[in-house]
Specification:
- The protein has about 325 residues and is an alpha/beta fold.
- The chain is about 40% helix and about 20% strand.
- The chain has 10 helices and 9 strands.
- Helix 2 links the parallel strand 2 and strand 3.
- Helix 5 packs across helix 6.
Length: about 325
């Protein structure tokens, strides 16, 4: 295994994103620092598996694999980790494209042997061509993107964001893989936080571990039209609360909600104030942004309360698995 080589894992689940998947793979193949391999992990969709295997059958550096675990993003990522050969494993969303120096900036972070993870900056590509006037930048995490309030530059963080992230392979040896039962599961409720739980678990297993975000490692993430509406915003923030309850159950509320407390007591009040000021100055969307921030906090809090009750009653479960490295694993 090459300790400095980067394997890229792209988890896919639907043929509806066919063109996006091809674009994601093309962006990896165009990197200034070449990836050792790109692994496309297909989540229980035989037709898509066969179509991708045919598409890349003559492309040695692209491998197509079937998710070897239960349906969902976490098990798909774990499948990619087990089958990969690089000392660094990067994750890219199937509806995103990476800028040319994405992997180069990731790799630079690992010059320090203490660094166990490096994340990047994710920029939205709005289906309508522009950000909805009511949509607050503080809630760009709702659409899988970097949000206002995250530190800029190359800085140490509690956790990286899963759609644009990389880990040293030994991180998974120390902490295990992504927990199943927390994150996305096909087309069901848009849960998340599996990378948060993993990162906290990692720093507990390796107290000396350093996790970074380098905002020069940029990807551009498509935001479909349905996610530009308040209905999705409300659903996603509620689901985030449910997910955060599971994280708190796994790692404790102190660490599980550490960053969220700063976000809700500092970043969001400032966002509301800006929205109200813009409304007073008759700038478009100001009142809507302020209202969306308040609504987002309330729905996330509601999800957290319900998720906590379910967790205490044993109604919500998740599993952390050890990553068993496969010899080859997969088709293509």
């Amino acid at each position: 295994m090459n300790e400095s080589a980067v394997s890229v894992v792209v988890c896919v689940y639907t043929e509806d994103r066919w063109e996006d998947i091809l674009a994601a793979v093309a962006s990896v193949r165009a990197q200034s620092r070449p990836a050792l391999e790109t692994l496309l992990v297909v989540d229980h969709n035989q037709a898509l598996l066969e179509r991708l295997a045919k598409e890349y059958k003559e492309t040695d550096e692209v491998r197509v694999l079937a998710n070897a675990g239960p349906r969902g993003l976490s098990a798909g990522r774990n499948t990619g980790i087990a089958a990969s050969h690089g000392g660094i494993i990067a994750f890219l969303d199937d509806d995103a494209v990476a800028e040319r120096d994405w992997l180069r900036h990731f790799a630079e972070g690992y010059a320090d042997p203490r660094v166990m993870a490096v994340g990047g900056r994710t920029m939205p590509i709005w289906a309508s061509g522009r950000r909805p006037a009511w949509f607050p930048e503080e809630f760009d995490w709702v659409v899988g993107c970097t949000y206002k309030g995250l530190p800029t530059g190359r800085v140490r963080v509690r956790n990286v964001l899963g759609g644009n992230a990389s880990f040293r392979r030994t991180a998974f040896d120390a902490a295990g893989g992504f927990a199943t039962g927390i994150g996305r599961d096909g087309d069901k409720r848009p849960l998340g936080c599996e990378e948060t739980e993993l990162c906290i678990r990692l720093t507990r297993a390796r107290p000396d571990a350093v996790l970074l975000i380098d905002d020069r490692a940029v990807i551009h993430h498509r935001v479909p039209e349905v996610r530009e509406h308040f209905g999705y915003f409300r659903t996603r923030t509620y689901a985030e609360g449910l997910s955060k309850a599971l994280v708190a159950r796994s790692v404790g509320a102190d660490k599980g909600l550490e960053s969220e407390r700063r976000y809700t007591t500092r970043v969001l009040p400032a966002g509301v104030a800006r929205g109200l000021r813009d409304a007073l100055l008759a700038r478009p969307g100001g009142a809507g942004r302020a209202g969306a921030i308040v609504a987002g906090v309330l729905t996330a809090a509601g999800g957290y309360v319900l998720g906590s009750l379910r967790a205490r009653r044993g109604g919500a479960t998740f599993t952390v698995v050890e990553i068993e490295r496969s010899v080859e694993g997969g088709t293509a």
